[in-house]
Amino acid sequence: MKKWFWLSFADPDKCLGLLVIQAASFPMAVLAANLARLHPGGEVLGVEIPEENMPLIPEEFRNRLLTPEEVILNLQGKKITEFTKEQLEQLGLS
Predict the structure, then answer these.
(1) Which of 21, 23, 18 is nearest to 40 (CA)?
(2) How far apart are CA 19 and CA 5, in angstroms?
(3) Residue 23: enclosing H or E segment and its boundaries?
């Protein structure tokens, strides 16, 4: 069964883009991004998106590389520097 994943691509200096893509697992989501030529390079972090949250992501923001600005303006995204230490720990990013 395919699930939705949020992939974030970055190099040490900046975010290279974000992607909402469907796949069976995180490694398969990264592979799908590569095969679709949506992987801009850099390191990849990703999380599974709970199915109940998918209605919050309009279809036009799925299966294409998004800029950080698009995510902030249209999907209520935050920069990593805007999270508290506790929020980062909850996300497993501390």
Answers:
(1) 18
(2) 8
(3) strand 15-23
Closest CA to 91 of 4, 1, 6, 19: 6
Token digits of residue 64: 């294409």
Sequence-ordered list of residues with C-beta below 8 angstroms from that of 74, at least 6 positions apart, any chain: 58, 61
Decide if pLDDT at 68 tops 90.
Answer: no
The stretch 5-24 carries a mean pLDDT of 92
For residues 13-30, average pLDDT: 93
Q: Give the mean model confidence (pLDDT) for residues 41-64.
A: 90
Return all residues near 67 (Cβ < 8 A) that are at least 6 apart.
17, 18
* Better pLDDT: 91 or 39: 39
Backbone φ, ψ for residue 38 (5° rounding):
-110, 0
Q: Which helix (H) or strand (E) holds 28?
A: helix 26-35
